Structure formats: C-alpha cells, structure tokens
Amino acid sequence: MAAFLCSQFLFLKAQENNKLPGEIHGNFEMTTQFYSVDTIIGAPIVPEKVLMNGFLNLIYTKDKFTAGLRYEAYQNVLQGFDPGYAGSGIPFRYGTYSGDLLEITAGNFYEQFGSGLIFRSYEERGLGVDNAMEGMRVKAKVRPGIYLKGMIGRQRLFFAQSNGIVRGIDGEFNLNEAFEGLAEKKTKVILGSSFVSKYQADDNVTYNLPENVAAAGGRLNLIRGNFSIFSEYVYKANDPSADNNFIYKPGQAFFISTSYSTRGFGLNLSAKHIDNMSFRSDRNENINNLLISYLPALTKQHTYNLAATLYPYATQPTGEVGFQADLTYKLKKGTWYGGKYGTSVLVNYAAANGLDTTSIDDLNTTRQAYKTNILSTGDIVFFRDFNIEVTRKLSKEFKLKASYFNFIFNNDVMKLAGKPGTFYVDIAVIDLLYKFNKTHSLRTEFQNMWTKQDQGNWATFVAEYSLAPHWFFSFMDQYNYGNPVESKRLHYPIFSSGYNTGGTRIMASYGRQRAGIFCVGGVCRTVPASNGVTLSITSSF
Amino acid sequence: MKVLIFSLFIAFSFPIFAQDGGREIPSVDVKDLFGNNFNTGDIDNEGKPIIISFWATWCSPCKRELNNIAEEYVDWQEETGVKIIAVSIDDARNMQKVKPYVDGQAWDYQVLLDPNGDFKRLMNVNNVPHTFLVDGNNQIVWQHNSYSEGDEYELYDLVKKLSSGEKIDSH
Predict the structure, then answer these.
(1) Count of helix runs (H) and strand runs (E) in chain B
(2) What is the pTM of this model?
(3) Which of A145, A346, A366, A522 has an alpha carbon 20 to 30 Å from A172's alpha carbon atom?
(4) What is the CATH number of the domain that holds A199?
(5) What pLDDT is stored for residue B17 in this prediction?
(6) B38, B16, B20, B42: which is closest to B29 by C-alpha?
(7) Which of A191, A194, A193 is nearest to A229 (CA)?
(8) B154: nearest CA partner in chain A
(9) Nearest by CB to B96, which of A66, A259, A521?
(10) Which of A8, A65, A302, A399 would best serve as a mutation to test chain B binding (most B beta carbons within 10 A)?
(11) What's the CATH class of domain B22-33+48-163?
(12) What residue spans define the domains of chain B?
C-alpha cells in the first residue's frame, strides 16, 4: 500500500513537471471455431470441438525508446495451421532505441534486405507464418544517402528457435541523396548490396556438410521520370539440404522489373530466374519453416474465391523461370468507350516454366546433379495465367466489374491434393454493386469455373449487404456441380455477419468451408474442409 | 514484492492509458514511390487533417475505398485541405506494381511503401483496409478497420469537424 501511494505520488510529481510517462498501444485478435461433424465434405473430426487462435500486441513508446511484446495463445491451434503452434507464451519481445546516428534493437525483430530475395524475416499471422529473428540489430545512417544495417540471431520456429544462426549486413547507397549536385537530377539511382550467412553444425552421418553457408547479392533501382527499373541478383554458396536432396550445387536468383506509368496508364514487366535457392536456417526443415530468403510467385494475386483458392501458383524454390506483364488503363470518361464516369481495365499475363538443365551423373562424387542453361527456358510448363478485369460505374447507384481468367496449372509440379496432371481452367466473374442510398448497398458476385480436369466445374454465388459504417451481412455458396463423381457435387453455403466500430471488428460466420488454399502475400496455407461456427474479434487501440 | 510490482504497474498504467487527444504518429523508415527512405515521423499537413489509409494491390475493399474517395478528393481538398496518405503493405511480390497501379488509377494521394509491415505493426494494424484520421496537431484521433460502400461519408464528416476546429473524442 505504501508502495502504491508512493508510485501515485511519483506519477503526480511527473505530471507536475508535464512529463508524460509514455504511451501504450496495441492490438488484439481472437478467432474461435466450433467444429461440427460433416463427413460428406471430408471435414476432419476435431476431438476438442472448439479451437482458438489469439494474440495480443503491446507497444510502449517514450521519446526515442520503444518496447513491445506479443502474447500468443493456441488452445488448441485452429485446423489448417501448423500444429507446432501448441499452447501459449510470449514469443516476441523487444526494445529499440532510435538515436540520430544509430537505431539499436535487442530481442525480436523483423527485417528485410532489398526485396527479400536474400533475407526476409516477417510475419503473416493469418497464415501462421512467423520467422522473426531473436538477437540484435543495428541500423546506421552514416551520412545522407548511406544506410547500413547489421543483424545476428536465430529465427523463430513456433515457440522455439532454429538450430542455425543467421547473420548479415546490408548497405544502401542513394546517389541523389549522397551528392548535393545530383539532388535535383531527373535520374535517380539507388544501389544496394547484402551479405547473409548461416551457421548450423554438421549433424549428418552420410555427407560432410558445410556448416557456414554464405550468400551475397546486389541490387539497382533506377528511376527516370515515368520510367523505372528494379533489379536484384543473389548468389548462394553450396547448401545441401532436404529441399535440394543434399546436392552441393550453388544457388542463384535474379529478378528484374521495369515499369512505365503516366496518369491513367501503368505498365509493369518483370522476369525472374531461380535456381536451387531454397535457403533456410535449418537445412532439414520444410514447408514455410525457417526460410531465410523470400521467393514470392511472379503472378497476380487473385481475390475472387474460385480464382484465388483452387489453383494458386507458388514459387518452386529449387528452380523456375518466370515472366509477368501487368497493365492498368483508365478509359476516358465522357467517351463512348469510357462511359460517363470512365472505365478501368486491368490486364495481366504470367508464365512460369522449369529450368533448362542438363543432368550430371555425379551423385556419388561432386553432387552437382545438373547444369543450368541460364539463357534459355525449360520445356515444362508450370503455370500460365491470363486475366482481364473491367470496372465501370454505370450510374450513381450501379457499378459493374467483369473478369475473365484462364489458367494452365501443372499439378505434377505443384502437387496439390487432388488429381495429377495438367489442369486447363477458365473462370468468369460478374460483380455487381448497387447503392440504395449513401449507406445501404448490396454487392453480388456470380462466378463460374470450367475445367474438364480434377474436380470439374464450380460455381460460386456471393451476396453482401452492408450498412455503413457499422454492419455487414453476407452469404456465399460454392457448388461443385461438375464433379465427375455424382456424390461429390456438393454445396458449401456459409453465412457471415460483422460489426465494425473504431478499431474493433467482430465477426461471426456459420456454414461449410471447402478444403482449399488460403494465400496472403506470397505464401499459402492449405485449409481443410470444415463445418461450424466461427467467431472472431480484432481490435486495435 | 508482488504487491509492489502490481501497484507500480497499476499506478503507471492508468496515466498511460488515459491519454488525452490521441497519439502521435509512430516514427519508422518506409519508402516512397521513388525508392527514397521516408520517415513516418515527418508526416505533416501544415495544421490540416490527414487521412492515413493502409491498403494493398491484392485487397479489393481497399481499392474500392481509395477509388471511391479519389472521385471526391478534389472537393475534399478544396473544402478542408485534407491530405491522404495511402500506405501500401504490398511485399516484394507486388511492390513494383504499386506505382503503375496508382498512376493508372490517377490517384493524387501521397503513397508510401511498407513492404515488411514495420509501419503497419507500429500502428497496430491487424488487417487492411485500416484507416486513421490525424488532426492538425499530428495526433491520431480516430480509426476504422474494413471498408463498406458509404464509409467515406462518415470519414468525411469527421474531417470536416476537425477542419472547423471541433474535437473528436471517439477512438
């Protein structure tokens, strides 16, 4: 009690001096799912009946000092997440001091060098991906235009850390900031370079493995007016791992992206070449665990249910060549083709193939396994995606969006559940939005997928009624009407409703969820079929 | 000892949570569309309101929100001087497509890139779209998660309040 009074006194004293004791903010999320038995859709039996994922972030700031922590709880972890998330704890906590010259972080942190091709430590909570570092990081602004970063630590693996240690440095040189004479020049040049290495003890009885594996990379960002180029190259020393079947061939990755854009027009062309670039801090890990390098797919990330969750492409880190073209165009308003309000047109094409390689028969000697012909593309088609989306506001009340997708999906490479072979898929979507008044609106989606392979044709219907700014009610039904097996021609209806206020969102849904793939950013997770009620609360304060 | 720690915690947390008039914009380095570093502590609109909207090229409701506001933005600026900062959380997969998309849609917003979620984390954003309203003293005074058609009218009513010098008390 004496201590309590004492601290209150101290607080009052502090207030007198007009010194606030800092600020605390955070966010919170809790998702609870009640599982019903539904053997027809193949939903796994959940003995606990109820499962929950949740977390709370707290961040304290006071002038140049920041500290934070995250409590996470999995009681037990929701279906579709890695069961490695068991129990609860505080796996993320840190303190950061930001001075004028140095910023120092001790504890856990997320970091990315360049585009992440050589190193990216990040979180995607909705997917259960979190390879946060635990260790120390220093950032320095040596002089204008020169930025340095250095870090060392171990990556997070669920509630533990990796066996391997990751360390690296990154430098960025912004020429226009560094030299006063270049500040106003039309051409902007930014150069960057990184070095990353991992250490893991040799635990293998068959092979003599390298315990230290280094990777180095460079990048260039050049901008002139409406035109820009970004390019990055990474070389990785020999890194035998479970991913590459313990071969000693070095890896490399190259990415180039060019853009040209003016008001109402945007074009992006990109290409990449990835060869034996799986890079993890534990050579025996798999799936999304302990990845050091970030190799996202060079394809458009779709949002409509049928286009996004049945056949999404994921990068093949052992080797692929990819290309993408992406066009945004706004047809002028007040013309016959643009309509009264203008029309937005998006066109996208993406292609991914295997590498062009020549096998080497050296698995008992040098273990290089193959030679890559860098200048050509392999014959095996991994993925093709052509899609177009047209959005037009027809009147004050009515908005129409029409989309078409064409995929070629090689499931012998992608190895999704379902049938082997190559799938040829067409999808059409009509999305209609009707505004009754300023705050009431109804949005409907009519989606259809045609394919002769795998599960055959699908249709999805969505209706979403919203009462801004607080409420929404939605209904979705997915129907596998073209399944070659008649007993599998099932409906997956689901109702959802939500309430938003300030930074808080409460949502409930009831119904069937189809087995599928749920992706955010460049990463995906497989979700099993389920039936039941889901409640989720997220809040930011 | 436990009592001591607990009472200290209570004593200090009350004043911490009882903040008056919002919070400051946290300070962290992100990038602008030209690859330059930009510190979010430098966000400023000379005493006029600011809207900070977190979005991504793969997020349909985010794009609906920012496209709907784009139609009204000229009027909003004329009437209140409000400035919109659209923070893209696209990572390496889509980051290079942000500028072509922004130009293609003819947005006049200040656009920032937060590819590894550093600013997003400090702003405690769970999901996009997430919109913040900042007053003339650079204090965050209001926020909203998700977007439904028509949400922009509530947002603009609040901008007008701020612009005419009224206080907003809801967080």
Answers:
(1) 5, 8
(2) 0.92
(3) A522
(4) 2.40.160.10
(5) 45
(6) B38
(7) A191
(8) A469
(9) A259
(10) A8
(11) alpha beta
(12) 22-33+48-163
